[in-house]
Amino acid sequence: MLQLEIWRGGATGGFRTYRIPLREAQTVLDAVTEVQRTQDATLAYRFSCRVGMCGSCAMMVNDRPRWTCRTRVAAVAPRGRLRLGPLRHLPVVKDLVVDMAPFFAKWQRAHGRFDPGPEPASEFARVPPGEPERRAADAGIECIGCGICYAACDVVGWTPDYLGPAALNRAWTLVNDARDRGGTARLDAVAQSGGCQNCHSHMACSETCPKGIAPTYAIAGLKRLAMRAALGMRR
Amino acid sequence: MNPALLLASRLSALILAVAVAVHLAVIIHAVRNGLTASALLARTEGNWAFLIFYCIFVLAAAVHAPIGLRLVLSEWFGWEGRLADRLLVAFAILLAALGLRAALAVFLA
Amino acid sequence: MSGALVSRARRHPGLPASVLHRVSGIALALFLPAHFIALGLALSGAPALERFLELTENPLMRTLEAGLVGALALHLACGLRVLVIELLDFRERTAASVALCVGLGLFVGLLYALSVP
């Protein structure tokens, strides 16, 4: 049997225990779904693609943020026990569902959006794929905004203002995008209070990202840019 | 933390990386060779290279430590603002003053 | 509970590294004024400094001293780790680099403790 302790409630609540059969090749998503469909229809949780593309199913599995659709029960519950909770650092809507609005609000605060500039470009940008800036951008553009890095980050827990690894990683990809015109406004945005300088290189984000992105190094790049700007050096 | 403080913290860290490595080597050497205080003072007295080195060391530490403390106070104790900053500047000045005095003391000994 | 903390520290070594870096930094910052004042005693001549240093020749003080020397080495090592990540884009294996940093701190602290007369 598989024993699951699942968070029920909102900001306050408690863990409730459920038991389901242990099945071959079961994923954590399979397990949660079985609980909800056969034992407790009031359990709230999210999923969508169930094949590791959308990131909707992210939640805390044994205190580590993971995609439940890509997490085998056998790999994380060797003694047949699982603890499931909502993603950390985000307001809990109900049970395993969190409000992602603050996460995306920080993307906007970090200027994590493409800026085409005041006028349309008169010609196509020529961007050799092997160019260092393009490779730096490519290293981070696969982010799907699942929130796992944000949930894993200790500094997000310590400093509510901290923009977080995902927002800063996105900003870094745009800083390195030859077509983007975000310029100094974005550099100011990522170096504001709660910006890149608050990262302490704990590596939680880089260790937990299911896409293999390493936001720590994107943030380090932003720090270098911020320090060069403080020295009066233009990018 | 802002970019200017980040820069000051990292630049002072680079200076301190060298200074601390040297300082630790001196400490271990002194302790393993049983050097007494007067033996050490004999080496520092009138030694300009020593004085310059340790003055730079002190000033780098006086910049580096308060910036680090500012971060800890903010993140772990939730204390930030003008009063905190003024106290930290006072601490920086204290460290610089006491440190330069100490360097001078063993130079003049 | 402590088992969970240890397990978390093991899987996420960057956090205890950061905490050790921070705590050692605080200890050193608090120690520095005392260190400078003690050295300043040399202004009253070497004997004044030597008399003060005799006060530190007991097991408790020696242990604290070794702790501070170790803390200095630890803070340096963890700081260098941060600097190479930030400035040199060094792609580390976190467990290995953290183990190295803590190891260096312990090495220097122990060497001091075992060498002091």
CATH topology of chain C: 3 helical TM bundles of succinate and fumarate reductases
Mean pLDDT of chain C: 89
H/I helix tally of chain C: 5
CATH superfamily of the largest domain in chain A: Alpha-helical ferredoxin
**What is the general shape of chain A?**
elongated
Write structural notes for this entry:
The complex is a heterotrimer of chains A (about 240), B (about 110) and C (about 120). Chain A has ten helices and seven strands. Chain A has about 240 residues and is of the alpha+beta class. In chain A, a hairpin with a 2-residue loop joins strand 6 and strand 7 (about 95-100). The mean pLDDT of chain B is about 95. With about 110 residues, chain B is an all-alpha fold. Chain B has a single domain, classed as Up-down Bundle (3 helical TM bundles of succinate and fumarate reductases), CATH 1.20.1300. Chain C has a single domain (about 15-115), classed as 3 helical TM bundles of succinate and fumarate reductases (Up-down Bundle). The longest helix of chain C has 30 residues, at about 60-90. Chain C has five helices and no strands. Chain C is elongated, with a radius of gyration of 18 Å. The chains are: A alpha+beta (about 240), B mainly alpha (about 110), C mainly alpha (about 120).
Question: Nutshell version of this structure?
Answer:
The complex is a heterotrimer of chains A (235), B (109) and C (117). Chain A is α+β, with helices and mostly antiparallel strands. Helices cover 34% and strands 14% of the residues of chain A.
Map the helices and strands.
The complex is a heterotrimer of chains A (235), B (109) and C (117).
Chain A: E1 2-9, E2 13-20, H1 28-38, E3 58-61, E4 64-67, H2 73-76, E5 81-85, E6 92-94, E7 97-98, H3 101-109, H4 132-138, H5 148-152, H6 154-158, H7 165-175, H8 183-190, H9 204-208, H10 215-230
Parallel strand pairs in A: 1-5
Antiparallel strand pairs in A: 1-2, 3-4, 3-5, 6-7
Helix pairs in contact in A: 3-7, 4-7, 7-10
Chain B: H1 3-32, H2 37-44, H3 48-77, H4 82-108
Helix pairs in contact in B: 1-3, 3-4
Chain C: H1 2-11, H2 14-40, H3 46-54, H4 59-88, H5 94-115
Helix pairs in contact in C: 2-4, 4-5
Sum up the structure in keywords:
heterotrimer; B: mainly alpha; 3 helical TM bundles of succinate and fumarate reductases; 0% strand; elongated; C: 117 residues; mainly alpha; 84% helix
